[in-house]
Write a structure and sequence with these properties.
four-stranded antiparallel β-sheet; 12 strands; mainly beta
Length: about 120
């Protein structure tokens, strides 16, 4: 069973920065795409950014130029560097891996438990 564990959330003032991390565990052989989503109260979960194992990235328009997604394939870990944070970035941030190849076969639709990011003065 694949487990994704996020860390790094917290309270930050507008204009500040935070770095989120998400580590995958559970006999992982390979993860192609990993990504970050977020969900604010009363809103649907939305894509923030994704990254493939080859390093190709995709960002939501609302975070382009402010957020940077990266990963360490050897550690099965994905990061989200968030700069110039705005109050509208406040949400629970979730790590996602649509398909994870494990020693016992593929695992689908893995999600972390979420980490709260609050941007407020």
């Amino acid at each position: 069973q694949v487990r994704l564990v996020e860390s790094g959330g917290g309270l930050v003032q507008p204009g500040g920065s935070l770095r989120l991390s998400c580590a995958a565990s559970g006999s992982v052989v390979k993860i192609n795409t990993m990504g970050w989503y977020r969900q604010a109260p009363g809103n649907q979960r939305e894509l923030v950014a994704t990254i493939t194992s080859g390093g190709s990235t995709n960002y939501a328009d609302s975070v382009k130029g402010r957020f940077t997604i990266s990963r360490d394939n050897a550690k099965n870990t994905v990061y989200l560097q968030m700069d110039s944070l705005k109050p509208e970035d406040t949400a629970v941030y979730y790590c996602n891996a649509p398909v994870v190849l494990t020693t016992t076969g593929p695992s689908f639709a893995s999600w972390g438990q979420g980490t709260q990011v609050t941007v407020s003065s």
